[in-house]
Write a structure and sequence with these properties.
YdhG-like, 125 residues, six-stranded antiparallel sheet, alpha+beta, Iron chaperone, Aspartate Aminotransferase, domain 1
Length: 125
């Protein structure tokens, strides 16, 4: 899978495809310093300047997930719970029927950008 459009086509329900597409488009519009790439068959937001990982996305039947790296995920643990999202050690699950808490996602993105703007590695060291 080489394109975001191809990834979206793997989502069964058109409304779910549209929801995830809108989330990604909104984030890319708000953060022009990010680019979208497909790596390991998943869409990922990367910093354009150095190619470092900022946020990953994935999908499942009952939800889509965001993955900001474990350090950032743990940093926002209380906010994730307050938003009402289920989370595992690595991902935050947003049910297709849930509202998207863009404020929380923005904070995670901004933390990762601040933490990783001068890195030369894809993942945190």
């Amino acid at each position: 899978m080489k394109t975001f459009e191809a990834f979206l086509e793997t989502i069964e329900k058109p409304a779910h495809r549209e929801k995830l597409k809108n989330v990604v488009e909104q984030l890319l519009n708000e953060y022009p310093e990010l680019t979208l790439e497909i790596k390991w068959n998943q869409p990922m937001l990367l910093l354009k300047d150095n190619g470092t990982f900022i946020l990953g996305l994935s999908k499942a039947k009952p939800h889509f997930a965001i993955a900001p790296e474990i350090e950032t995920r743990n940093y926002f643990d209380d906010a994730i719970k307050q938003a009402g999202y289920d989370a595992t050690k690595m991902i935050i699950k947003i049910k297709w029927t849930d509202d998207v808490n863009f404020d929380l996602i923005r904070k995670m993105i901004e933390k990762n950008i601040a933490d990783k703007q001068h890195t030369t590695k894809f993942w945190r060291e």
